[in-house]
Design brief:
Number of domains of chain B: 1
Radius of gyration of chain A: 18 Å
Helix content of chain A: 25-40%
Distance between the termini of chain B: 46 Å
Structural class of chain A: alpha/beta
Distance between the termini of chain A: 32 Å
CATH class of the largest domain in chain A: Alpha Beta
Number of strands of chain B: 0
Largest interface: A-B, 22 and 15 residues
Order of helices and strands of chain A: EEEHEEHEHHHEHEHEEHHH
Order of helices and strands of chain B: HHHHHHHHHH
Number of strands of chain A: 10
Number of domains of chain A: 2
CATH topology of the largest domain in chain A: Rossmann fold
Number of helices of chain A: 10
Structural class of chain B: mainly alpha
Shape of chain A: globular
Oligomer: heterodimer
């Protein structure tokens, strides 16, 4: 973990006894946790344990079956459609595949929220997009279309779009999936850098435990819809929980997969 | 038995939920019309859709309309020739094309060419989480994606319907001249003479309604897409089938409303 400590304050988001079911299948089971302002919280765990669902619940893209979710002080079950829309402007979301619009260039994709919400001059939009592109190392790729760039560039462009409105909460769904180790490292570093720079509470869902141990403030290990353990990277590294040990040492993977 | 009742209950609930979403999406997209003028992105999508609906479907509309006019004239000609009433073909063709066949053919062409593409595009966007990304940017997907498409159909579908009628009349007149010995211009003048303004505006109105139905069905099905590429295929198929059914049913009710026996 970095020696540079974030300025951690009150909860940016919290789950209280959250249950999420799809039909008869329970995905999250009495889930309770919170993430502080400026904290970088990583959720790891086997596939199909509710990691992405957790992110979508935070974003208000899914509704919990039971329980309370608070984001930036607002109870998501109590907000109106317009309040949710306003709240989402304070949340950045990096989707697994980038989710950039194919008919727009990278720069146009990044500028989209600023253009659509109005109140920002064309010059300012241009400057902010250029800065965002520079921040993710895509200074000269703004005029390219998503189909013309690599997976890593796509993710970085999506990254730039997620941070263009300086969100207070940043959500990352598998930011390094499908990327080579060098690009994964670049993305991990970028997450850490932006977390420190923008002071946003970050929630990262990933399978990449090596990366998570490097940049997380805290890590939660999710299994069967509940956190088995939540702790610092050091805590996770020395955990005696069989499932966590198996995740750290894949040769013990039979513990996870039965 | 209880299981069947539960299943039926689920189906009924699903039907009304889908109907509710469909109605909400339709009104939201219609209300989003004025916004198209003020937003650059929506204006661009609107113009692009005008091109796709209007110019993109012209070749197929021309061929379908031409042959429809020719086939109708030939079939009617055979019947009317027995009574030496060849000119009645022009009257019947005018009546049939303006009131029913023009709008119906246009609706079918648009459902096949445009509705299917809309369902596939929005379905793919849903699967790729682009729709969710729009929501996360506080951009209303219905206003951003559906409204420009719906208004493009409302504007262009009646024009396309009018065009198919004209082409069908020309095809009919060609057959009238070559097979029924009716002079070409006389056939056309007869069509114009018997055509009523009401037939024209009801036909155009009907096509505009078909445009709304096609767009609403395609987009609501596209937004409900799940399960990857197979889901996109299923959505596209459903969008075309439901659009055809809506065109048939909608056509009947509009005709019933405007023409009382």
């Amino acid at each position: 973990m970095s020696s540079e400590q974030p300025h951690i304050e009150q909860d940016a988001l919290s789950f209280e006894q959250v249950v999420k079911t799809f039909g008869t299948r329970s995905v999250l089971n009495q889930q309770t946790f919170s993430v502080k302002e400026g904290e970088l919280f990583v959720i790891i765990g086997p596939s199909g344990t509710g990691k992405s669902v957790t992110l979508k619940l935070i974003a208000g893209l899914l509704k919990p079956t039971h329980g309370t979710i608070k984001v930036l002080g607002q109870d998501l079950s109590q907000v109106s459609v317009s309040q949710l829309s306003a709240l989402r402007r304070r949340i950045g979301f990096l989707f697994q595949g980038g989710a950039l619009l194919g008919w727009k260039t990278l720069a146009e994709n990044i500028a989209l929220p600023l253009i659509e919400h109005g109140g920002v001059s064309a010059d300012e939009i241009k400057t902010r997009v250029a800065n965002a592109l520079a921040e993710v190392g895509l200074d000269h790729a703004g005029s390219l279309y998503p189909s013309e760039v690599s997976g890593g560039m796509l993710k970085r462009a999506a990254f730039a779009r997620a941070i263009i409105e300086n969100p207070e909460v940043l959500l990352f769904d598998e930011p390094t999936s499908g990327l080579d180790p060098v690009m994964s490292y670049t993305i991990d570093t970028l997450i850490r850098k932006l977390n420190r720079l923008h002071k946003a509470a970050c929630v990262v869902v990933t399978h990449d435990l090596v990366g998570a141990l490097r940049y997380a403030d805290r890590i939660g290990f999710l299994k069967d819809g509940q956190f088995l353990t939540v702790g610092t990277p050091e805590d996770i590294r020395h955990s005696q929980i069989p499932e966590v040990k198996a995740f750290l040492n894949p040769e013990h993977s039979e513990v996870i997969h039965g | 038995m209880t299981f069947i009742r539960e299943q039926e209950g689920g189906l009924v609930a699903n039907f009304f939920a889908t109907l509710g979403r469909f109605t909400f999406l339709t009104f939201q997209a219609l209300l989003g019309g004025p916004g198209i003028l003020f937003r650059k992105d929506s204006r661009q999508t609107f113009l692009q859709q005008l091109y796709i609906v209007g110019i993109g479907t012209l070749p197929v509309a021309t061929v379908v309309a031409m042959f429809t006019g020719m086939i109708l004239t030939l079939q009617l000609g055979i019947a009317f020739k027995q009574f030496s009433q060849e000119l009645m073909v022009a009257y019947t063709l005018s009546f049939a094309m303006l009131r029913e066949m023009g709008p119906f053919m246009t609706g079918i062409i648009l459902a096949s060419c445009v509705g299917s593409a809309m369902a596939a595009q929005l379905g793919t966007m849903k699967i790729n989480e682009e729709v969710a990304a729009l929501e996360m940017m506080s951009i209303d997907p219905v206003r951003f994606l559906v409204a420009p498409r719906m208004w493009a159909l409302i504007v262009m579908a009646p024009l396309l319907s009018f065009y198919t009628c004209i082409i069908a009349f020309l095809g009919g007149a060609a057959i009238g001249y070559t097979q029924l010995n009716v002079p070409f211009l006389q056939f056309i003048f007869e069509i114009i003479a018997v055509a009523e303004v009401k037939d024209l505006y009801v036909g155009l109105f009907k096509t505009a309604v078909f445009g709304i139905l096609i767009c609403s069905i395609a987009c609501s099905i596209g937004f409900a897409t799940v399960q990857g590429a197979a889901g996109v295929g299923a959505s596209t198929r459903r969008a075309v089938i439901y659009s055809f059914l809506a065109i048939l049913a909608g056509g009947y009710f509009i005709t019933r409303f405007f023409y009382v026996i």
